[in-house]
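2024-03-11 09:14:02 DEBUG pipeline.ingest accepted 1 chain
2024-03-11 09:14:02 DEBUG pipeline.ingest length=96
2024-03-11 09:14:03 DEBUG pipeline.predict start
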Amino acid sequence: MKIKIAELEKVLSDLLAELHEQKCEEIEIDKEDFYWAISKEELYNPYNQPNQLTLGQLSDDLEHIHKIFEKKLPIVCYDFAKISYIFLFIGNKNIF
């Protein structure tokens, strides 16, 4: 199984374009700031129930992404994980 970066780029671009078309320029985060996070070792191991849950925080993730946007932080691979929690929130929000 392989992931084509061009496909990810196209689908992500289309999803963001759809948000714009739906007149959704901002998404409100109310009480949903905290979320459960699972370690990467446990996340992809469906044969054992996770037992090391931690808390993540969307406001922290957004602040981190904002610093990258402002060029105050360099981009690193783990930033995909940070932004994935934001995209998960948007996907669960049922905006369109």
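2024-03-11 09:14:41 DEBUG pipeline.report The first helix runs from residue 5 to 21.
2024-03-11 09:14:41 DEBUG pipeline.predict end
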